[in-house]
Design a protein that fits this description.
Number of strands: 3
Order of helices and strands: HHHHHEEHHHEH
Mean pLDDT: 82
Strand content: under 5%
Structural class: mainly alpha
Strand order of the largest sheet: 1-3-2
Helix content: 40-55%
Distance between the termini: 21 Å
Number of helices: 9
Largest sheet: 3 strands, parallel
Shape: globular
Amino acid sequence: MTTVRPLLEEEARALTRFQLMERIAETHEYWERRFRSGRALTRGELAAEAEFSVVLFEYVRPGGSVAAALRFVQEGRHRPAGDDYWNQRVDGSPARPPRRVQRTRIRGTRGLPYGSKLVDRTTEYGNPFTVEEYGDRAVPEFRGFVRDRGTDRDRWPGIQYPSTAQIVADLSGWDLACWCQIPDGPYVSPARPDAFALGHVDRCHADVLLRVSNGGKP
């Protein structure tokens, strides 16, 4: 799930502290790959690298050193569950549970909102059960697969999918983006502890991933 774009100031402001730490680590890897390739950086890449240095100084303040920033990242990566400090948003906006967002190609909008990770079928987290084959059962079948694959392995032979531990490690705390439509009216995030009490219904496999990645059961 490593992103291939560098971290910029606009994105940094839209993240939680934990998300910012993850993106700093990913961006460091991004620049290392660029430098190792031996190819000269473009003007746009040089500007992005300079802006990344601004982000480090403004939000992490490790003395301006990428190595120091990475040590800071590693120290905070395994944060205690429910640690409010890491879940606070960089821009000071109120904390909220992770939610599902809809990816779009509408002109003038961001296809993948900041603070989200893509889980459609172009990624390893796409729903392996297609609407063409399963119809309205595609999401319930996915939920059953995630819930029961450890005890009912013969039911889904040949399906390779990330483990629950990997789902938690990669997706915890992030909004999840898919092409599925968001229902009209108030949207109840399945990452909320009271989602079932409020009658939340999975309308997309990302709803199942939200619940699992944030410590719930499918």
